Prior knowledge:
- By secondary structure, the chain is an alpha+beta fold.
- Helix content is 48%, strand content 16%.
- The strands form two sheets. The chain has a five-stranded mixed beta sheet with strand order 1-2-4-3-5.
- A hairpin with a 4-residue loop joins strand 8 and strand 9.
- Helix 1 (5-32) packs parallel to helix 6, helix 1 (5-32) runs antiparallel to helix 7 and helix 2 crosses helix 3 (68-82).
Amino acid sequence: MQPNRAEAQAWRGVADLYHDIFLGLVLTVLSRKSEADAAEFVFNILRRQQREKFHDGLRKLGIEQDPPAVAAAKYHYLSNKIGGVDVDYMYESDSKAWIRYAPPRWLWKGVAMCAIPRKVSEAMLWGWHANNGMMLNRPSVGFVCTKQGVDAQDGLEGYYCDYGRDLERSERLRFARGESAPAFDPAAAPQLASDDWPAARLAKAHRNYAMEYAKSAMLESVNTFGPIEGEGLMRQACRIVGMQGFRALAAALGQTDRPLADFIVALVQAQGDRIDRSGPEAGPTTLTQTGWTLIDRQGDFLQECRVGYGELMVGLASGHSRFHNLDCQIGGTEDQSRFAFSLPAC
Length: 346
């Protein structure tokens, strides 16, 4: 089943917005706090992602029975392919397999990578790549990084290696700048089964991939820095992301030059949530979003994340017009968020 063009474009716009929430939060921590704080934050985000996604992903991708070093590399290749991220995979042996994240890097979008310190990029590797052996119950597997894009090298690359002995924690990630990955051969790379991953599922998965990064970043902003400071960082980042991203998102949603209420309805529906409109078409309008699939039932920090989402909407409204007067009322239960967006006549 193929998604229609407008639907696929809307999902891509939502993916870009939520990717910007993730990156905006990292940059906010980096610029308002410190490099060490940003590194800790990125480590926590990636470790949360790994805990929640890795084992289930191995099963869904059908690679859980592969040799551990190969399974680790295949996971990054296939899962990132689903997410729309450009990654290469090169098998060398059952105990050594390469991955390469080609430029432009998805994680550090555009020229934002110029602001990412080496230690923050390394925190991503420590948070996930260095821990794959432990997740696979094979402590002999580590990751060797041979290049980093943040050092102006042509991508992030490295290989998973099974050393045949248990590694100390400090050995699970090492750097070998003198080595270089072999050429990528797409014909030799693992493939997704087309029956399991039709076009519509892949398009939605691309959207969800970015949304998951935003979810982890929002939850970890509170978990890492505490509810008061974490909420403050989230409010600032989400407001700016909304203001900066409005025009591109409106175009992706087919809402350029449309009323703000129509834009909000299109956005909420494109991210997979329910929204209802009340009030006359030309008069004051209330939009009620019932449920926020991304965050609902995630446990702690729901209220702080809901506040961040409200700030995102205010930022988007500011991008639409500085005279927007959008009011956001936040409520709900542990299982279901509720947002009421009130707009004057427009």
